[in-house]
Amino acid sequence: MNWLNSEAFVLFDQHIIWSDMIGNILGLIALGLGWRRSLMTWPVQFLSGLVLFTAFYGHLAGSAGKQVVVMVVALYGWWQWQRGRGRADDGRITVRFAGWRERGAMLAAAAAGTVAVALLFKAYPSLSWDPWPDAYIFVGTIVAMYAQAKGMVEFWIAWLLVDVVGVPLNFANGYAFSGFVYVIYGALVLWGLRDWWLRSRRDPRPTLEGAPA
């Protein structure tokens, strides 16, 4: 597997490694499948996390750890979408806007999680070169994937907020392909946000378990 961490090519004076390129292409495909509300988005996200884990393991332990969490959340997302499949008119999951309590809980979790992870990275400098932005991306990615698993339109907004920091951080850390892909993510996220936003107005709202019929 050593070839995964070898150089694939040079683009604009940036050295592109195979694992960085393959993992992020898979991530891009997973985002597109998420836009289409395809259940396959989750195994592709899991595979992306596995490949990127090999890219970071050994020299960016914090980023490698993030990919482990991404794989766990991908399994959770698969389980959630399996349960929710068939509720929309087209046989796929129903998308919706989060309630205010859900938004508040996600914002609080993102803020507290970012602080906690950043302090961990600062206490153990070998885990990250840039503790605060790396923690922000780490936690923001998990929050975004959680919102996606729940079929929340806010999933796309969370990804946009991750992109704002992710693009410059990846270039600064030498992961140029990740930076380029995050730029493409931004465009795809805007299209996905529009699609889910409009769809949330058309799909029937899901019935809560235990609620009266």
From TrEMBL:
Name where it's found: Cell membrane
- Regions annotated as coiled coil: none
Q: Which GO terms describe its cellular component?
A: plasma membrane
Write the record's keywords in alphabetical order, separated by commas.
Cell membrane, Membrane, Transmembrane, Transmembrane helix, Transport
Q: Where exactly are the transmembrane stretches of this chain?
A: 15-34, 46-79, 105-124, 136-162, 174-193
The main place the protein resides is membrane
Write down the InterPro entries for this protein, in alphabetical order.
NMN_transpt_PnuC (IPR006419)
Q: Which GO terms describe its molecular function?
A: nicotinamide riboside transmembrane transporter activity
Q: Does the record's keyword annotation contain Oxidoreductase?
A: no
Q: What membrane topology is given?
A: Multi-pass membrane protein
For this chain, the family text in UniProt reads: Belongs to the nicotinamide ribonucleoside (NR) uptake permease (TC 4.B.1) family.
Q: What is this protein called?
A: Nicotinamide mononucleotide transporter
Q: Tell me what organism the protein belongs to.
A: Streptomyces lasalocidi (Streptomyces lasaliensis)
